[in-house]
Structures are given as structure tokens and as C-alpha cells.
Amino acid sequence: MKRIFTLLPCLFFLNAGIRSQDLCPLDGISVTGGDEENIIYWGDWQDFTETFDTELPDDWTVINSGTAPDYSWNWTQPTGTQSIDGTPYMRVDSDAAGTLNDFLDEELITPVINSEGMSGLYLVFDHYYNNISIDQAYVDVWDGDDWVTVASFTADIGAWNAPDQQVLDLSDYANSELQVRFHYIDNGVWAWYWAIDNVVISATSPGERSVYTYTLTEFGWDMNTLSKEELIEKYPASGGPYSIVDESSIEEHIVNTRDIPEECGTFSIYRVYDATDNSIIGETTELSYTHASLTNGQEYCYYVTVVYDEGESEGTDTECGTPASPVPEATISLDNVFGLPGDTVVVGVDIEMENDYSINSYEMTFGGFGNFAVELLGVETSGTLTEQFDWMISINDLDSSVTVAAAGDAEMTYGGTLLQLRFAIDSDAQGAEIPITAYDILLNEDYASADTNSGSIVIPEGCTDNYVAIFCDYGSDQAEVSWVLVNSDGDSVAAGGAPYESNFCLPSSAYTLLMYDSFGDGWNGNMWGIYDYIADSIVVSLTLESGTEGSEIFLLGDAEHVLGCMDPDAINYNEDATQDDGSCLYNGDLCSAAIEAAEGDAGNQADGDDEWFYFTATMDGYITVTTCYDNQPE
Question: Which residues, if any, are the signal sequence (predicted)?
Fold first, then answer.
């Protein structure tokens, strides 16, 4: 955009000490629209720095999602040669965790840093990542909505005597809730560690500085910014335990520096301009400016300069904002549920409120389901916010929609379930996704432009039994895992490994899960399960604790089966059992049902399993007991 400036000769001068390019401009501005006003603001940015020299500050967060919390991110004192710069640092340590723990999944997160409006933003940190195989290290940044990975490490980088310094450009992620996360995952292997120190988030890109490594008699090495001559003077060869052993050990390393002095001049005011005609809107010494008496819905654009005693800086980039009437910060969401032909289902209607928003009444209409094979049975408030706040409710039920209104003396100040809609699905309904929508929403007797999330009733195509998802996941060594699901007729209905997830329509019956592990050490945390969409819950959860193979029998749905022992020769035979569950017991399996031991060489016939025996002695003396192999006398 073309800007026109008029230079008045009587006021134009150059200070010999401050050049025009040294009159530092602002990094950037942001504009927030309000009711008939825009707020233009800029930050008096201060670099964020944490050296961990005394402790891990309380505003940092450590999250342990693994199985060895003692070896998550810990504030660590330097020992021997293990330090970044001779001072304490942060460390996550898979090596110290050893082999007894399944895995490390550890997060170290900075406090929230308001970087809104920053045009330049850089993350700098020193680290040593010692990789072994499949362990991984990530640096993520919170962009205001989600974690975004900006760096990842899958191989060694740095060392105790030469840590790596990372410089990452975060300019694209500047926001009011910026955070940085150091995320370490060892994926269940006995790995090494990751050490981090000197974390800085800066508005300026680092330059370069010299760092020297050198050998000391006590500490092995250290780092410093002293020159070689200053190092020799500070640590003379005969100066005791902290002296330099050998001058030839001093090596210079060029790394980034965050210390870039900048002469900006003597500050006077901030000046706010209208970017459309370059006219001055206002001046302030504060860090924001409110442009008032505006027209809602019209866009206004701005840039800001810094005025010093020595002159005026360049303007920021242009930013625009549109004032608008305040919008209630509420969201109405309807549940998505599953149902089968002939079922009754409940769709919950929830409200979320932010920034101290509250309501004393609501009214809304629900529709979208009129042309589908469902019938609205009614509106329920038991256990909902409407009942909790003792609001009166009225319902106007039409053929294809229902309008619900409620109000009360108590102010609803937090979110939850407002009410529930109960539907009956026709017994001959076909597969469909039936929309349930909310519209004509009144909050506090005003039509609100609240966000709405529609719900649905999903009827699975061609399924009248149990609509489920079979899954197998969550552990390590998944390549070793396999399984087969067998029905009560002995037929295979599903098979797979890990990870696995697929939907099925399964009849109510007794099922047997055959589990295998090719290595022979069990499934190492992998779980096999069945999630029932209709019940909205996991109804079966199984695993192979150890060994090469195993099996489990379970009932699914309304199976008309009785599990038990079906062998008439067993001591726990159940004549009512319709599905053998492998629980049969025989003489010798229990102490209470021991086998009488036979005398002589013929003895008892062994079956290879552990057995209980009893023997009644008829004389004094010694008894010799022998055991042999399967089908051999014992």
C-alpha cells in the first residue's frame, strides 16, 4: 500500500549517534473487534528464558503417560562429564528405567506464553539426544488449536562435551497461548536419554558467538565464552583442581547467541495510523489503543509506528479488524447414537458456555427426523441441568419436529446436558443415518447465533444383532501377535493381528478367542476387545498374559448359552451347560479329589499333568515315590 509522508525541513534532522534504521519498529500488531470498537495492541515482548539452574519452575508441566514415572523429565544436577554447560538441566532417562518398565512417553511443557502479534519468533535450546534404535524425540508447539511438530530426532545429536544447539523458527505459530513441548517416547525399548538446557523463546533470530571447550582436572570439560587467553588466565596450569591440564585441549565452537544489543533511541510515544489514508488516529504510551465509535460490520485497517526523540520508526505491517455485536459464547451439541430396528434410543442435548456466559431460559426446535423410520417418544429431563436448576419446561410436539422451552429463577452458569430426546426405531427400519438438528435457538429470550453441532441416529445396514468393533492394540511387539475368533459351531468369524480394528455384525452366541504369540512371551500389553456401538461400551477385553498360546470363551449379547463343563466323566460336570468353557476337573486335579496311589512297579498311569495322590500306610517304614513321563508308571 502506498503511503505519503511530508517532510518539514525545519523538523527534519539525523542524530549522529542513531541511524534511521536503528529506530526500532514494533514487531507487529493485532486487532480485536468489539462492539462498535476495535482494539489495536502490541506486546512489550520480553524474551522467555529458562536455564534450570535452581529448579524446574512451578509453571512448567511434566506429563508422564508411560509406566516409569520416576524416570520421566527430572531436574538433574551435573555429575562428572554429564552436563550441558556445567549447571543443572532437565533429563528423561530410559537407560535408568531399565528393562523392568514397559515404556516411557514423557512430556516437558513450557508455561503459556502470549506471543500474539509477533512477526518473528524463535525457539533456541541446547540438548544432547542419545538414541539407540526406535526411540524418538519431538519438539512440538501449541498453535492455539493443536500441537504441531517443528522438529524430530531419531538419531544421536550432540554430546556431553559438545551439546547441539537448535534454532527453530516459530514465527508462523505466534498466538496468545503459545507453548513448547519436548516429547520423548522410547517405544518400549531399553534406550538412552534426552537432556535439555537453556530454553529461550525470542523475538529476534540469534546471531553467532564463540564457545570454548576445554579439559579440567576435576570436571573433565566445561564450556565458556571467555577467549582462549582469558581461559588460560582464569585457569592457570598450576592453579589447583580447577586448572586447565593442557592448553591444546581448548577448542573454539561457533554457536548461536541470543544477546544482540540494539540501540533504538529514546522512546516517546506509539502512533496509530489509519492504513486507508495514512492519517493519524491516535497516540499513546500504552501497549494498546482502542478505536471507538465505529460501525459494526465495517472493516478498519491500521499500522503503528514508534516515535523516538531522534525520529519515527517504520510502520508495522497492516492489520485489519471488524467490530461486531457481542456473540453469546455458547455451543449446543446433540449426541450421535447407534440403534437397531426395534430399539429405543436416547439423544442427549448438551450446552457448553465460555467466558462467564450464563442463561436463565432457553427455547429451541428439534427436527430433521420426520421422514425416517423413527418416532419421537418424548422429552426427558431426569438427571439433566433443566431438572438440577428446577426450571419449568414446556413441549410442543409436532409430527416432524418438537419445540422445547424452559426457564427458571436459578441462573445456569455452567454447561452439561440440557435435556434428552427419546426415540423408537421401527422394527422394519433399514440402514440409515438419521439427522437430529437444533434450530430457532433462543437463549435468554434472544435469538442466539450459538454454534450448533447436529446429532444423529445411526442404524447399521443389514444388522439386527450385535453391531460391534473388534480391536487389538495398545502394546509392544505387535508383529508377534495373532488371533482367531471362533463361534459356537467352531467356525472362524474373524482373524488378525495387532494393530487391528474392524466392524462386525455378530449374532448373540458363545465365542472362543484363540490367541498366539510367535515369540512366546505373551502379548506385552496388547489388548483384544469388542466395543458395542449400541451399548457405547467395551463389552469384552482379553489378553495373552504369557506363553505362546491361550484361549478364552465368552458370551456376546443375549446368548442363550450356559457355560460349563460338558464331560460326564468330570467331577464338575454341568448337565445344563450348552457350551464347554474348558473348566472340567478330574480326579487328581484337586486335593479334595486325590487319586489313591498304587503300590508296586506298575503304579499309577501318569498323564503328564500335575496330580494329587493320597496313600494310606499300613506299617512303619519308608515310602519311595517316583514320577515318570506321560503314560509311564509312576
Answer: none
